[in-house]
Design goal:
Layout lengths: L30 E4 L2 H14 L3 E6 L4 H14 L6 E6 L15 E6 L2 E7 L3 H11 L1
Parallel strand pairs: 1-3, 2-3
Antiparallel strand pairs: 2-4, 4-5
Protein name: Thioredoxin domain-containing protein
Pfam families: Thioredoxin
InterPro entries: Thioredoxin-like_sf (IPR036249), Thioredoxin_domain (IPR013766), TRL33 (IPR044193)
């Protein structure tokens, strides 16, 4: 479909679907993925205005460590239903993620402000941070 955002045959999927990984289902509707700079900007504005706790996972489809932690990130979204989970691929959101220097990077938000940052993987570390910020 020309000019639309619909995926045509042969076009690469974006966001969580574009990772090619088999990911756990999200049962609370609190897991989103940003598939463009505009989409990530809208998500960030929503986080700031809603003041709801949130975590953004900045990763890349080519990053082995990102691929290792992403299934855990999705699984953990089911354990923290009041926390918004966002996956942003740095290659799909290049303008809004140019400040990210390491993948994966996790940013934690509370009351619309970033309050914490975590670099690298580690399901137990991530779970501890999520518990702390939820």
């Amino acid at each position: 479909m020309e000019g639309g955002n619909d995926l045509s045959l042969g076009e690469k999927s974006k966001g969580l679907e574009g990772t090619g990984l088999i990911l756990p289902l999200n049962s609370h509707g609190n897991l989103k993925s940003a598939s463009s700079d505009q989409n990530l900007t809208e998500i960030m504005q929503n986080i700031r205005s809603s003041k709801a706790p949130a975590v953004i996972n900045y990763g890349a489809s080519w990053c082995r460590v990102c691929s290792q932690i992403l299934p855990s990130f999705c699984k953990l979204s089911n354990n923290f239903p009041k926390l918004s989970f966002v996956y942003a691929d740095i290659d799909e959101c290049p303008d809004t993620t140019q400040h990210i220097r390491y993948t994966p990077t996790f940013h934690f938000f509370r009351d619309g402000e970033r309050v914490d940052e975590m670099f690298g993987a580690g399901e137990e570390r991530l779970q501890d941070r999520l518990w702390l910020h939820s």
